[in-house]
Each structure stands twice: as structure tokens, then as C-alpha cells.
Write a structure and sequence with these properties.
Blueprint lengths: L13 H28 L8 E5 L5 E10 L6 E6 L3 H4 L3 E5 L3 E5 L5 E5 L5 E10 L2 E4 L3 H36 L3 H21 L3 E5 L5 E5 L3 E5 L6 H17 L2 E2 L4 E2 L2 H32 L4 H13 L4 H24 L14 H25 L3 H9 L4 H30 L4 H4 L26 H11 L3 H37 L6
Helix pairs in contact: 1-14, 3-4, 6-9, 6-11, 7-9, 8-9, 9-11, 10-11, 11-14, 13-14
Length: 512
């Protein structure tokens, strides 16, 4: 083995250039991941709330976001997230640094996360609940206790809606069922009881400049006082925020909440795509390299396969819409779901058609990788197997293909990496802006391939460009992008470990 960083005479600077290119690529990748991690994960940290007193005008409470220099001058401005959309009509405020007269961080400042109007930043005056009024120092403990009760009631209500009411409604749509109707009535009655129990409490809030606001507690999701929290408490709150982001569904037009349906939809689509593309791509590669007579027609097919890899992905989306959705899906509706028409069952975008479209898109990658793996198997391996009495099929299945499996998995890795990040074709064949119900439940056939689904890539696109407040959505865009990279990494690492295991077990022909 040659010593590290030594080169033969005549090699020139190419080894150094190659090593420098690899180092630069890894540095750029690390920088990208660091940017996504800081911009995304930092969003869940309970940032300190400042009480800003300008030299002119009323004071306000805000979370500092960033500073910028004013174009054409040496002055610097700071952007604050002020919330209180229902009071001020805006959530953000720029203020020059030299216009700030005083800057404080009172521990009693409260941040409320609300369903409507976004966050509130200010003071908690009192909690009025069932004729009782908790004011002063007693208001905050009473609010924490009441919010914990509300969370329990919401969880039970959501469970009834998703796991009980929705399946019963589908059963009733399929045919009359007196038992299902009675059970549905009881579930709806319990939901109304829970809704009534969540009502009644009201918060009396006050902004920093003295304006009062009465807030129904049922619209408040969470409350915290970041200036009074210790570092361990902030770390625990950060962990809970990350978990909610991973486990909850989106809300507020995808600008708040979590991305669990998008995670599930992305992983399920990639797995279904892999199940479809792997056998077809492998069989096509085996036929072209081992079975088909090598001639002009075979070379033409290879050129066509390689050219298909360069077709824009939106073209595959149009093909999937015309052939899979309207063609095959429309025929299935006419044959098996005529009673549901004109409402389509399979004749509209769904998880199945999206997976098939991406399988078609990534098929050339798997075919080319399989062919390259087969071409690297030495001829003496084939000749030796045939000389020992093996048939051509036995030689292919017991000698050649086991040695080619790592190359096939390489093609699958490339296919997964491309499919998981594609967005354009999915917009035509099944992805949805909001699909809070994942396409898997306890009803037969358990995996509902006809349903629409959410996707991390499309969620990033929709949140960044279609939200009503792009500035507020940017941290979620960073966090979702980081999550998409991690999902692709986990899927690829699984295939890489499997490839390494098979390479060590069967051995792989070295490159010529």
C-alpha cells in the first residue's frame, strides 16, 4: 500500500485537486446541514422576550430576530417579532437601534400560542373560569393547570373524531347500519360534552402599552414565560416543541403545527415506489445484458433508457395524470366503483398513482445500475459455473445475480434519493396541501392507496410561497428541509448497510 498523500511520478496535481474537490464538497454539505439545523431547530427554543421602549412612541414586547444595516447609511435596524396581530394588525416591527431608549426583559412577560391571530406577547392579568377570578400571582398557576386539562380534553375529542366518528361515517355511507348510527350518535354526544367542557374560561390580557384583551381560553394551545425559565426548562420546552413538530399535523395554512402526515406520506410513497421499481428495473437490466441478442436494436433500447433519465420530471407527472389517473383510475372506477360516480375513487390523484409515477421516473437509474453491475462480473465466473454443469438459469441466479446485488442496491439508493425530493410530478398525481389523515388505519384494506397524501417536499414549497406570512414560515421551512434530508439519509443508509452486508457475503467483482 502506498503511503498516505504520496503520488507516483507523472501524476501531476490531479490527486490533490481530487482531494480538494472532495473536501470542498463535504464542507458545502456540512454548511448546508448547519444552516438548516440552526434556522430550523432554533425555532423551537423559547427565545427571550424583550420589552422595548422607543425614544418616540409607545413601548412594545418583541422577540429579536435579526439585525441589518440600512442601505446607504451606517445605521442598523433590528427586526422584532411582536405578535398581537389582532391588536396591531401586523406581527413584525423594524426599529433602528439608536431609536431604542430602554431595553428590558421582565420575567412576567407571557407568550401565548393561539389557534387564531397567532401568538400574543404581553402580560397576564387574570383568568376567569366558572365565576372564579384568578388574578395577580395566582393567575399563572391557574392558567397552567387549566391548559393541562384542556389538552386532555382535546386529545380525547380528536381521538373520537379520527378513530370513531370517521370510520362510522364511512360505514354508514356504504350502507344502512342501525348499530353504527347509534354508536355515531353517542360519539357525537360525547364530543359535544367535551366541547362544552372546554368553553367558559377567559383570559384577561394586557399588552405592554396598556391595551386590554379578553381571550377565550379554548383558543389557546400553549403558554410560557421564557424570561422566567431556566436553561434546563428551556431545553425541555425545546424537546417538547420538536416532538410536537414531528408528531402533530399542520394548521394555520401549514404555517404552524407539525409535519407528521408529510413524514408518513413521504416514507410510504418512497417504499411503494421502491417495491415497484426494483423488480422491473432489475429484470430489464438482466434482459438487456444477459438475455437479449446484442445488436443495433439493443443498443437503441439502451440509448432510449439513458435518455429517459434526462426527461424533466414534470413530463412524467403529465404522463401519470393522463395514463394512471384518468386512464387506469377512470377505468377502475367505471368497473368496480360505478355506484360512487361521479365522485371518483381511483380516478383522482392518490398515493398509488404517485408511487407508480415516481417508479417510472426512477426506472432508468435502476436499469443502468443493474447493467453496470452485471457487466463487472468476470466472464470466468460464468464459464466456471457452466463448466461445472450448471444450467444457464442456475448460473444466472446462483452466481451472477448475488454478485450484482450491491450494484442493484446502488441503483435503488439513487432512485430513493431522487424520488424523495421530487415535487413537480406529485402536484399532478396525488399530493395535497392538507391531508391530516394518513392513508393507513384499522379498516380493511388498512393501506388506502386511493387517498391523497402529504409530502415533505411539497410542504416546503407550499409553506414558503403560499403562506400569508412568509417571514414566520421560514423557520418551519428550514426545519422541514432538514427533516427531508434526514429521511433521505435514513432510507439511503438502510440500503447502504444492506449493500455492504451482501457485498461481504457474496463478494463483488472489482472495477476493470
Amino acid at each position: 500500500m502506498r503511503p498516505f498523500l504520496t503520488r507516483r511520478r507523472g501524476e501531476g496535481p490531479w490527486p490533490w485537486l481530487a482531494a480538494g474537490s472532495v473536501a470542498l464538497s463535504l464542507s458545502m454539505l456540512a454548511g448546508l446541514l448547519l444552516l438548516l439545523a440552526v434556522g430550523g431547530l432554533g425555532h423551537f427554543w423559547p427565545a427571550e422576550v424583550s420589552e422595548v421602549t422607543p425614544r418616540e412612541g409607545a413601548p412594545f414586547a418583541g422577540i429579536p430576530v435579526r439585525e441589518e444595516r440600512v442601505v446607504g447609511s451606517e445605521r442598523r435596524e433590528r427586526l422584532y417579532f411582536t405578535g398581537n396581530l389582532d391588536l396591531d394588525g401586523e406581527r413584525w416591527r423594524w426599529i433602528p437601534l439608536d431609536a431604542i431608549a430602554a431595553l428590558e426583559a421582565p420575567p412576567e412577560l407571557v407568550v401565548l400560542e393561539r389557534r387564531r391571530w397567532g401568538d400574543f406577547l404581553g402580560h397576564l392579568v387574570a383568568l376567569e373560569d366558572g365565576g372564579r377570578r384568578h388574578a395577580g400571582a395566582a393567575a399563572w398557576p391557574a392558567l397552567e393547570e387549566r391548559l393541562a386539562t384542556l389538552e386532555t380534553l382535546r386529545d380525547e375529542r380528536d381521538h373520537l373524531r379520527d378513530a370513531v366518528v370517521a370510520p362510522l361515517v364511512r360505514r354508514l355511507e356504504q350502507g344502512g347500519d342501525p348499530a353504527a348510527a347509534a354508536e355515531l350518535a353517542r360519539a357525537n354526544a360525547r364530543i359535544r360534552e367535551l366541547q362544552t367542557a372546554m368553553q367558559g374560561a377567559t383570559l384577561v390580557l394586557e399588552s405592554v402599552d396598556g391595551r386590554r384583551l379578553e381571550q377565550p381560553l379554548a383558543e389557546v394551545l400553549r403558554a410560557w414565560r421564557p424570561n422566567a425559565m431556566s436553561p434546563p426548562q428551556k431545553l425541555a420546552a425545546w424537546g417538547r416543541g420538536v416532538w410536537r413538530f414531528l408528531s402533530e399535523g399542520p394548521r394555520a395554512a401549514n404555517s404552524a403545527g407539525g409535519v407528521w402526515p408529510a413524514i408518513f406520506g413521504t416514507v410510504m410513497m418512497v417504499l411503494l415506489m421502491s417495491v415497484v421499481v426494483t423488480p422491473f428495473g432489475v429484470l430489464a437490466g438482466i434482459y438487456l445484458n444477459e438475455v437479449a441478442r446484442q445488436g443495433p436494436f439493443t443498443r437503441l433500447v439502451r440509448i432510449g433508457v439513458r435518455n429517459l433519465a434526462g426527461v424533466p420530471s414534470i413530463v412524467y407527472g403529465v404522463f401519470g395524470l393522463g395514463v394512471f389517473v384518468h386512464g387506469i383510475g377512470g377505468s377502475l372506477d367505471a368497473w368496480f366503483f360505478a355506484e360512487s360516480l361521479p365522485s371518483p375513487t381511483f380516478g383522482t390523484g392518490g398515493l398509488l398513482w404517485a408511487s407508480l409515477t415516481l417508479a417510472l421516473l426512477t426506472l432508468p437509474v435502476v436499469i443502468v445500475a443493474t447493467e453496470e453491475g452485471l457487466a463487472r462480473v468476470p466472464e470466468h465466473q460464468r464459464e466456471g459455473a457452466l463448466a461445472l454443469g450448471a444450467t444457464r438459469m442456475e448460473m444466472l441466479t446462483r452466481v451472477v445475480l448475488p454478485m450484482t446485488v450491491p450494484a442493484m442496491l446502488t441503483g435503488l439508493i439513487l432512485a430513493v434519493a431522487r424520488a424523495a425530493g421530487e415535487v413537480a410530478p406529485l402536484m399532478l398525481v396525488g399530493v395535497a396541501k392538507l391531508a391530516p389523515q394518513v392513508p393507513v388505519d384499522g379498516e380493511f384494506p388498512f393501506l388506502h392507496l386511493e387517498r391523497k397524501f402529504m409530502h415533505l417536499g411539497y410542504h416546503i414549497y407550499d409553506t414558503a410561497f403560499h403562506g400569508d406570512d412568509v417571514q414566520a414560515a421560514m423557520p418551519l421551512v428550514y426545519a422541514t428541509a432538514l427533516l427531508l434530508v434526514l429521511v433521505i439519509l435514513v432510507l439511503n443508509l438502510t440500503a447502504i448497510f444492506l449493500r455492504h452486508h451482501l457485498r461481504a457475503r457474496h463478494g463483488v467483482a472489482s472495477r476493470a
